[in-house]
Each structure stands twice: as structure tokens, then as C-alpha cells.
Amino acid sequence: MPAFLSPLFLIGAAAAAIPIAIHLFYRRTEPVIDFAAMRYLRRAPVEHSRRRRLRELLLLALRVGALVLLALAFARPYIADPVIAGSGDATLVMVDISASLSAPGRFEAARERARRAIEDAPATQAIGLATFAQALDVVAPVSQDRAGALAALAQIKPGAGATRYRAALQGAADALEGRSGRIVVITDLQQSGWDAASDAGIPESIAVAVEDVGAPETNVAVTSLRVEGGEAVAAVQNFSSRPATDQVIFAVDTQRVGAVPVALAPGATAEARVPLVSVGSGSLSASISDRDGYSADNARYAVLDADAISVLAVTPTGHPSEALYLERALTIAEGTRGFRFRSIGGAGFTAIEPAALERVGVIAVLSTRAVAQRGREQLAGFVRGGGGLLVAAGPDVDAAILKDALAGLVETTWEPRPAQALTFAPDDSRHPVFRLFGGAGTLGNVGFSRAVRVTAPASASVIARYSDGSPALVEERTSGGRVLVFGSDLNYRGNDFPLQPLFVPFIHEAVRYLASQRTSRTEYLVGELQVAAMPGVVSLPAPASGRIAVNVDPRESDPGRMTADTFQAGISRLNASAARSEEAAAKEREDGQFLWWYGLLLMVASLAAEGVLGRRLG
Amino acid sequence: MTAQAAGARPSELRFLDPAVLARLGTLELKARAVVEGLLSGLHRSPFKGFSVEFAEYRQYLPGDDLSAIDWKVYARTDRHYVKKFEEETNVDCYLLLDVSASMGYGSRGVTKLEYGGLLAASLAFLMNRQRDAVALTTFDDAIVTMVPPGARPSHLRSILVTLDRTTLGHRTDVSKPLHVLADGISKRGLVVFISDLLDEPAHVIDGLRHFRFRGSEVIVFHLMDPAELTFPFDRASRFRDIELGDEVMAVPSVVRQDYLDAVKGAIDRYKRELGSEGIDYRLIDTSTPLEFALISYLSTRGRRR
Prior knowledge:
Number of strands of chain A: 29
Strand content of chain B: 15-25%
CATH superfamily of the largest domain in chain B: von Willebrand factor, type A domain
Number of helices of chain B: 11
Oligomer: heterodimer
Distance between the termini of chain B: 21 Å
Helix content of chain B: 40-55%
CATH topology of the largest domain in chain A: Rossmann fold
Shape of chain A: flat
Radius of gyration of chain A: 37 Å
Structural class of chain A: alpha/beta
CATH architecture of the largest domain in chain B: 3-Layer(aba) Sandwich
Largest sheet of chain B: 6 strands, mixed
Number of strands of chain B: 10
Strand content of chain A: 25-35%
Order of helices and strands of chain B: HHEHEHEHEEHHEHEHEEHEH
CATH architecture of the largest domain in chain A: 3-Layer(aba) Sandwich
Structural class of chain B: alpha/beta
Number of domains of chain A: 4
CATH class of the largest domain in chain A: Alpha Beta
């Protein structure tokens, strides 16, 4: 539907009355003379009045049109997105299922309010049901199916997410799909639910009603859990205005390892500690028994697994044989000091989700085939994020592609050279990679039949050289992670290094050295990952394998509330924000459509036609 | 009585302005005023020298040829009588008056229809006085009224009454009525055609030619209003056709010359083509005294005889 960016200019269209007034004024001044000898007069250059009147009207229309078009052009017209046909008033009931609703009786109260809201909605209105915490989840789309909405209501369960009103309201406005109507928010009005980071808004045509289900007066929560110096340390906070006592129970893999009583003044935080004896792996939990407050924050989890270094090898197709020796060298080591190895093809690496690289410590580039632009950008991002990169300059790795991918990060490059029998030796035997070898002699047994000529920049460190003096292993330290460039392949094609006993410790030390800059995150908040919907310890799916602890957002434990008016005031801010957003969107749409330009063109054409016609009319 | 050549233009001061004449009472009175005014101004009668066969005596009237007075009768009766001859009374005069809507135009108080009606009445009066039979037909695109020929005084009255009751008709289309009338005239006579000729000239000429073919003499009085002859307008105006009602927009200063050329072209064509058919054509400006038209008629009659 048409809309205007500057509708005030439309007032200028009133100027169209000027030519109309002039037309009407001059029209009356022409006298009418009855005459008989018209047959002689018609032979003179006269104009039939009917034709003249038509011309005058056309002339008038062109003049009026030109003025109106000018006003329209200045009003900056654009075609707005159409409102969905057939839309009418609708009610969307959105139920808070955040962790704060886990207080005794609160969720049931919310469900009952929602049921009443659905049943009390006017019969002519469509009804929809959604739940929300950090985002909105529509469980019954807006329709006339009231029974379906009630059935969906019976199925909803309390969650453990954090309340984010803005995101939820924005989702609700989207769910109404341009309809006018009402959003009924059933919530505990938790103060921490307003997130100022969002600039989303809801249209003016949608009213928001708030149903307050209340909140408990007290809440005691475990707000953190960590391992510190062989001890498990849990922080417990009292969010109520009266003292509280409780007992923190620590457990590893469901086996109780200790219990610590805590006494908490109003608003105070206390730490509980228990020693962890010979426990190197497993899931650690600390829980309390606060029955009056939110139950979701009564426990907190941590992962005790020493982090095995995750290595991702990029090979031509991802077939295991393409990184056989590297895989064997890494999988020999097991346990907390071990490695997790996986290989992936160039195309697969290009398509991989960034989150999957989050827990990867080292990427071994054994091939650049099928690594498209997105894959190259991910490689650079990985290094910038602290990831280690081991580049084996074998026949499948294109120096140009790597240079393009790591532009600004790595300057080391190489070029092929004729086959030549070479050996290599450490240039810096104190480097961590060669720390275990204790001298150059042991590496001298490695024979190279094919190697590349590596060119290292001055900022790079040459840590091993071939027997001809050219760099064999170069390290570049970036602002993020470390990069090692090995001047041959690692799959027994240009050298016999994989067959040498030194290959395994070399690879282990090199990977550990590269991964030392990368710290793996083992704790996530509910809702941060798709697999982290509820608190606990969960295993991540491949390729980012491993276990993580999922906990409730500590901000959600604060039962501080706001009033319904404050909530509505927050929505008003949303409206203002929405108005600004709509204005920006309208301007963007108008800029893209350029309708004012066509309006001006039409106006010029009208004036030209008016000039021609006016001249002919005299 | 001193003779003066018939058709000589008398002083205009002696004649009645048509606008003044229009304000007189009955048509008979107007016709009488015109005819008697005309005849009193003439120094000799236009009816002279065309004896064929004696028919009757008639009391002398001013304007009669003195040579026609029978002095013997005067000696016996002490009154002046003139001889009337057979041919004079045998002439039937057909007055054809256009009453189409365009004849209703008049820029100076007298419409063409009023002028033409008075002209017809005057001619009827004049002819009746000399005992000629007079017929009257009015027409627009068809014959509207028709009074058959007659020479009695009472017949004159019926013609005058008919003229007096004449109203404007529809659009001009002389072709059909002219042919119908030409076919209906059984006796050769004099046809006086009074019209503004706002029709296709070829149709007009063809219709009048039909009368000539039937042996009648034809006089055409082409009536034009002075505004039609000079186009005196000065402001841009919408000119509305009083017959058809449609309008044209014209700036007089721009169209005047073309208009006058068109009028002159039509007049010249009528003069040329009617003259070649032996038809007298008289252009009458309706602002000029009616007597001029009568003099034209009388001179034509005199010349024919």
C-alpha cells in the first residue's frame, strides 16, 4: 500500500486549486454571441467550443497533475509492505516459562491465567499461544482453533531460561503477522527481564496486557561453581530480605563428595568448599534445598574433564587415509592429556558452522582443495580467535590460497622446488616443539625426497632447517593463535617422517604448543546452545565433541520485581524505538524504490505537454 | 410629372429606417407606409408602355404613367382614369419567404425575418394595387404556409395576416421546398425569393434554376444583417449557431478577414451563377431602408417589360 516519508508536503497539493480557480475565472469572461452566418465563420480558423472545452479540461488536468505530482514527489512516496489480507483482531497469550517461574505454584498460576485469557478472548478473535524465556516459542499459531490453544497450554512445561522481555515481545508482534489485536503477557514481572540491548518494537495497533502471577519473597541460589586448587568452590547467594540457612551438597557423577552448611544474611553471598581427591574427570554439581525460592537455580554444574585437545584436520575429501599418520599419532595418547582427532574435507570445512570450531584447539591444514571463500574466512577467524594452525606444505596445499586466507595474519609462503634428498634439524632446540628431543641428531634420520622452498618473513621464527639451510619449520605468532608451517607433507609422501619414532612426540608437542593459546569453554547458560535447554552436564555432538555444563543465568535468580506500569512503560519505550525503526525502514524502502524520481519525471512531462497544448490553444 | 429613371437611388432621408418601421402597428400599415412613401417619391410610374390588350379602366393613382390616362374619359367624367391592359393582370407573383431560424438574427433591432416579411408585404401591397395576383409561401426546410395567387383586396389581407403570423422555423434547407414549389406553379409568373441564403449555394441555385426552367422570372433578395456583412465583433467570443446551437470559439481580429472573404465569395458566386441563369440577384443590407429593395424590384420589372 502506498505511504509517504514526508506526508506534510502533501499539503502542497492544495496548490492544484490555483489553476482550477484560474480556469473557472477566465471561463466566465468569454461572451456568447448568437450568430446566423456560421457557415462562413466556420471556414475561418475557429475552434469548436466542445473541442476547446476538452482541450481546456486536458490543459487544466495537466496543470493540476503537475502540481499534485510535485507535491507527491516531495512527500517521498513508497510502497509499504501490505498488511496480510483478511487479517483481523487477534489475541496472543504468551506465558513466561523462565527459571523464575519454577517457584512453588507460580507456573500453575501462570497456566491458569493463560487458560482464562484464552477462554475470555472474544469469540470473533483469532487466538494464539506462545511461551517465552530468552525468546518466544509459538506453541499454538494464531487461528480460530481455541481448543487447540487450550490443548497446547496443557502441554507446556516450565523451563530454566532467562527472561528477555524485548526479544519475546518482538517475537509476539511477528507472530501476529501484521494483525491488530492484543498480547497478553503472563509473567512474574521479573525486573532483570528487561534487556536494553534490543531495538525491536511492537506496532501501535497491538495492545499489551500484563497478567502478574506473583513471585516468591525469598530465593537462595547457587550462583557459581568452580574447581580451584583441588577444591570445588560453590557460591551461594541469598536474594531475600531475611537471613537464610542451607546446606550445599557437592557431588561428582551423582556420587556425593561433601556437604557444607551455609548461613546467609539478607542479600549476602557465601562460598562453600570441598576438597576433590583424585577426581580428574566427571561432572561436578553443587546443590541446595531452597524450597521457597526458584527450584531451577538450586543446583549448579561444572565439568571436571581435563580438556583433551581437539584437532581438526582439513584434507582433500575427509577420507581417513588422507590424514592417516596424523590421526594415528594423535589417537595414541588417551585420557586427559590426550587428543580428539577428526578429519574433514575442504567442502565440509567450508560449510561447517562457526560454533563447531569453538571447541577445536588446532586445525591441521593438509589440503586446501575445495576450501571456498567462507572456509578461508573461517580459517582466519579461527586463528584470530586464538586457534593454532599446523600447515603441512604438501602437494595438496596451495600456498596462494593460504596466503589469501591468512592475509594480514601470516606472511610465510613457499614455492615448489625439484626433488632433492634432504634432512632437517632444529634451528632452535630449546623451542617447546623440540624440547623432548634433546638434540639435533635424533631428527637427522628423517629423510626428505620432496620439500618446498619456504620463505619466512623477518617477524617469523625459523625453528628447523633443511640440510641446505632453507627453512623447514617456521612459526608465526599472530595476535590470536600460533601458526606452524612445515615445509613438506605429513602423510608419508615427500618424506619418511611419519615412519620415524620421533614423529609421534613431534606431533604431540607441536599440537600442544599450538593449542596452548586456545582455552575451551566448558560452561554455558541455558538457551545459549541448542543442546543446552536445561541445566546439567551434556555431551556436545560431533565435531565439537566433549562435555559441557549448562547452568541457569545467575541474573534470573534475582526475584526483584517491577510493577505492571513499569512494564508498560518499557513497552512504550519499545514503541518509540519501533517508531524510529519503522521510520528508518520506511526511509530505506523509499530510497530503494525511487518513486519520487518518477513523480518528478511525470511532472516535467505534464508541464511539457501543457506547454505544447497551451501554445496550440492560444 | 417629371420622369426619373426607375431604379435611381432616391435620397435616404425620405425613407423610413427599418428599425423605426418595425415599431409601426400592423403589417398593412407598414406596407402602406413603405409603398406610398416610395410611390410619392417617384416622378413617374414604373408601369408604363407595355400595352398588349385593353382590359379595364382604373382610377389614376400617383405614380401612374401620365400617358396611360384616358383623356376622353376625363373629358366625360372629369376624373382621371388609366387604361389597364391584359398582360398586366395576367402576371402571377409568387413571394417565397425564408422563415428558417437563421432569419431570426438581427443586430440592430430588426431581424431578417421582420425585414423580409415587410418586404414581402410591401411587394404584395404594391402588386395588389396594380391588380397583379400575388401568392405567398413561407418555408424553412419544408413549406410552412402557402397562400395561393389572388388579386382581390381581400386576398391581400389574407397574405398580410399570414405574414403577420409568421414565426421562425427550423434550419435552412431551400432545395426541397423550391423544387416542390417550382413543380406546383402551372403558370409562368414572377418569383420573388426572399432569404438569407444560408444554405449550400449549389442547392439554392439549383432550386431557383428550376423556376427558370418552368418559364418564370426570378428575383432573389439576399437579406444580410450588417453584422453579417462586416463582422464588427472585437472580443474573443463563443459564437453560437442560432439554427443548430453548436458553438465555436473565435478571436474576431483573427478570423474577420477569412469570414469576410467567405461572405464575399458566396455573394460573388450567387451573383455570377444566378446572373448566368437570368435571375436577378439583389443583396439587401437589412439596415438600409426597405424602399431600396422595392426600387430594385420595380427597376427589374420595368427592365423586363
